[in-house]
Specification:
The protein is of the alpha+beta class. It folds into 5 domains: 186 residues, Multidrug efflux transporter AcrB transmembrane domain (Multidrug efflux transporter AcrB transmembrane fold, Up-down Bundle), CATH 1.20.1640; 78 residues, Pdz3 Domain, CATH 2.30.42.10; 48 residues, no CATH class; 73 residues, Alpha-Beta Plaits; 138 residues, no CATH class. It contains 14 helices and 24 strands. Strands 1, 2, 3, 4, 5 and 8 form a 6-stranded antiparallel sheet that branches. It has a 4-stranded antiparallel sheet with strand order 11-12-10-23. α2 runs antiparallel to α14. It is elongated and about 110 Å long. The mean pLDDT is 78.
């Protein structure tokens, strides 16, 4: 018996299986991580100002930065984080210890601005440019002027403090990336309005990734997909995001244009050098009731490229100057700058007379936000401003996209799916082990089959962790299919070799060879059947098909040969 065990341990097929198991466990990296992992850092938030970095999209799950304590209070789960973060006082330093560093944050106080039914005088200082003649030469100089304007009185009411600006989730215990079904989030299936070649499709996906990253979303999966009739689709999966946050951002082409008359002055993207996004440079103001609703106005500055500024100068050089008391200088040009978003007029800006024919690079962008009350109008203004800023930075998408299907899954539901999937997988493995034990009534056969099944699961999960493949419900179904085909193959190997007890027609090697002919034919059948599923359902069954193919391939070339060696050595 000792001789057989020694021969089994030194068998090259068993050594290969052991090597793959070790590599898979290293790739999975099981650990007991403490705290909560950081998913997103919101721009201009307390966390962002304190220097907490935005997680990189492709970082390994167990390598994510984790929050361990808040003011020395241990953070063990998401409930602890929100419990302690919601009890903080504004303008008082907060110490947050993470797995990488210690940060000091100052929560930003939240104010609500209420406009009163009164007006007041306000002195404003402006920097203007004047053309003067010096020594017979016309030169442009800057001059500071002050003037008094009438503005509505406002009052600010403290509303506690702003959110710290971190989105967290339970710390990952392994490097296995959970798909949308298992961690919650939103999946959007988009279809381009026209057929794209590979180059344009690649540009589209890159642009979408940049747009979502600028918007502050991470844990993003964007991939192309096709169905069996050749239709093109884009599948976008975003963990921890709601459908409302990304629907408009992805479905609309985001074509921003500035026109003076029929001339396009600048477009979002390459024509924009800088977009103001800080709280000091981008703000919401001027909220007023109108027809039972509230309307607020946002504004922020942008810097144009030299070419765009020159186009603006060319478009304004022939315009007439007219008196306009609403203009800061009391004079404006005969036409306005029209701002279009997706070919819809969103705002019109007056052009001061002193900008006539001048290549001005700094422009102020404004727009409205509407709500049933003032708070909703402010929130909508902020969302509209954020979306417009994102489009100005990233530019328009190469083609308009139509939403075909959306799925939104809550984290609570995803957690329930995980528990059910684990339970059903263990139940399936246990059921197979019981049936095999009843069939052969020999533990020396039943236990190796059970070990082989578990080895296939470990190696398959290790491959998923190594290549960064998301394990979702479809992938789990593929794992169960791979296990099922593996048990079939092991029974074929066992039955073919055990014939030696009653028949001496074949020798041991011929019996194993005969079994593997059957196994390879079954393997080819499964692979051929799975290939169409990669493209069926707009690619939503891709996880099931690829996991099944990888699983049966691991079984045929790694675990089944090791099991056949066991049968040949221990049962011969």
């Amino acid at each position: 018996m000792n001789y057989r065990i020694k021969k089994l341990i030194t068998n090259w097929r068993v050594i290969i299986l052991t090597l793959f198991l070790v590599i898979s466990i290293v790739a999975i990296h099981p650990s007991l991580s403490e705290g909560v992992a950081i998913r997103n850092i919101i721009s201009n938030s307390s966390a962002n100002i304190a220097g907490i970095p935005q997680p990189r999209p492709n970082i390994l799950p167990v390598a994510r930065e984790r929050i361990l304590t808040i003011n020395n209070n241990p953070i063990k789960n998401v409930e602890d984080y929100y419990k302690y973060s919601s009890s903080l006082n504004s303008n008082k330093p907060v110490q947050i210890k993470t797995s990488r560093a210690i940060y000091k944050l100052i929560p930003l106080e939240k104010f609500e601005t209420i406009e009163l039914n009164e007006t007041e005088e306000k002195i404003v200082t402006e920097l203007i440019e004047k053309n003067i003649t010096i020594n017979g030469t016309l030169q442009t100089v800057n001059e500071t002027i002050t003037r008094t304007i009438i503005v509505p009185k406002t009052k600010q009411i403290s509303k506690g403090f702003e959110d710290l600006g971190m989105r967290v989730y339970e710390a990952p215990q392994t490097n296995i990336r959970k798909g949308l079904d298992l961690q919650g989030g939103t999946r959007v299936l988009l279809q381009p309005e026209e057929k794209l070649d590979p180059d344009r499709l690649s540009i589209l996906i890159d642009n979408m990734k940049e747009r979502l990253n600028v918007y502050g979303l991470s844990d993003i999966v964007i991939r192309d997909a096709n169905d069996l009739v050749g239709n093109q689709y884009i599948v976008v999966e975003i963990a921890g995001a709601t459908e409302e946050e990304i629907k408009d951002l992805l479905a609309k082409q985001g074509k921003f244009e500035s026109r003076i008359g029929n001339k396009t002055v600048f477009r979002g993207g390459q024509d924009i050098v800088y977009v103001a996004r800080s709280a000091q440079e981008a703000r919401v103001e001027g909220c007023n009731p109108s027809n039972g609703q509230w309307i607020c106005t946002f504004s922020f500055g942008i810097t144009l490229s030299a070419d765009a500024a020159q186009r603006q100068a060319e478009a304004t050089k022939d315009l007439e100057s007219i008196s306009n008391p609403d203009s800061r200088s009391g004079c404006s040009l005969s036409q306005k700058i029209d701002l279009f978003l997706d070919d819809k007029l969103v705002d019109q800006l007056q052009i001061a007379c002193d900008l006539k024919g001048k290549a001005e690079t700094r422009i102020s962008i404004s727009g409205p936000g509407i709500g049933s009350n003032q708070q909703d109008a402010v929130i909508n203004s902020q969302l509209n401003m954020k979306r417009l800023q994102t489009i100005l930075i990233t530019g328009s998408l190469p083609v308009k996209l139509n939403i075909v299907k959306t799925d939104s899954i809550s984290p609570v539901l995803g957690e329930g799916f995980v528990k059910n999937a684990i339970f059903m997988s263990l139940l399936a493995i246990l059921s197979v082990a019981v049936v095999v034990a009843i069939r052969y009534r020999k533990l020396i056969i039943a236990i190796p089959i059970l070990i082989t099944m578990l080895s296939e699961v470990i190696i398959l999960l290790g491959v998923a962790a190594f290549i960064g493949w998301n394990v979702d419900l479809a992938a789990i179904a593929g794992i169960l299919v791979a296990i099922g085909t593996g048990v079939d193959d092991q029974i074929v190997i066992t039955d073919e070799t055990l014939k030696g007890e009653t028949s001496n027609i074949y020798n041991w090697k011929e019996k194993v060879k005969r079994a593997f002919v059957i196994i390879m034919l079954a393997y080819a059948t499964v692979v051929v059947a799975m290939i169409p599923l990669i493209f069926a359902g707009a690619g939503l069954l891709k996880g099931f098909a690829i996991t099944t193919i990888i699983g049966v391939t691991i079984g045929v070339f790694i675990t089944r040969p090791a099991y056949s060696s066991f049968v040949e050595i221990m049962l011969k």
